[in-house]
Amino acid sequence: MNFKEIIEEIYHKVKNIDSKGEVASYIPELATVDAESFGIYISTLDQNNFGIGNWQDKFSIQSIAKVLSLVLAYRMVGEKIWTRLGVEPSGNPFNSLTQLEVDNGIPRNPFINAGAIVICDILISHLENPKEDFLAFVRSISNNTALNYSYAVAESEKEIGFRNIALCNFIKSFGNIENEPSEVLNFYFDLCSLEMNCQQLSEAFLFLANNGRRTIDNIAILTKSQSKRINALMQTCGFYDESGEFAFKVGLPGKSGVGGGIIAVHPNQYTIAVWSPKLNKKGNSYKGMRFLEDFTTKSELSIF
Ligand code: GLU
Known about the structure:
The protein has a single domain (3-299), classed as 3-Layer(aba) Sandwich (Beta-lactamase). It contains twelve helices and ten strands. The protein is globular and about 55 Å long. It has a five-stranded antiparallel beta sheet with strand order 3-2-9-8-7, sandwiched between helices. With 304 residues, the chain is of the alpha+beta class. Glutamic acid (GLU) binds at residues 62-63, 94, 113, 157, 164, 192, 257-258.
């Protein structure tokens, strides 16, 4: 498959369309990004890798980090993790408080903010130094010691994170947070501030295309069954209340973040990272979605 040719063609087409989206500005630091950035990187299991556009520029991966924190918690806790949160698509905005009330403080899935906050609580209960240990885990699955948090983004979100503060306290009132809410939230804001470029992002997720095994040495990050389940969750819950649309148009497990990044995984084939900061109304990268829709259509490589 000549990915380079397909990606180049779609990149030039999508780059020139008028992006209707808006850069996320509710976290002030995210609004400082160049709104016209557009980068893509594909990593394949047979080393047919390729990048185009701003693929070497770092960006805030935001909610995409929620997949990696879930992976670490799932590794440590196993199946009993699902007593603390569900595996159903939410169909509601990612920061909904009303849904949490209806669900008695058990977040519907690990990728809405409430679910990711519970995962942070689980990690704090199991790790000696959560912030450092999580970063070490991300560096190890990526085989890249250069990865880091952004202090500026984390601090910026801490200043305006009132809704997440409300969510965390609300879950605590139902007895589903064990630790101090301020500690849980600080860790949550830190992990959302992780930065990667498109290449680093596609490499970090490659184990999910490889049945849970790191590609450089075949070491298991997750079991085959756990890896299948993480991909299933990305497929059903990875795009907020637009997850159905992403499955319909793109047909790959994936996860988006309000920094404008999207990672998509084709099990046994490849991972592809796209970054374009302008978001559609549901909070997903406008051009990122457009690019991936054309990419899986043209390459005829989706899971459906
Ligand atoms: N840190 C962001 C928040 O909590 C993450 C949102 C996202 O990327 O979906 O609002």
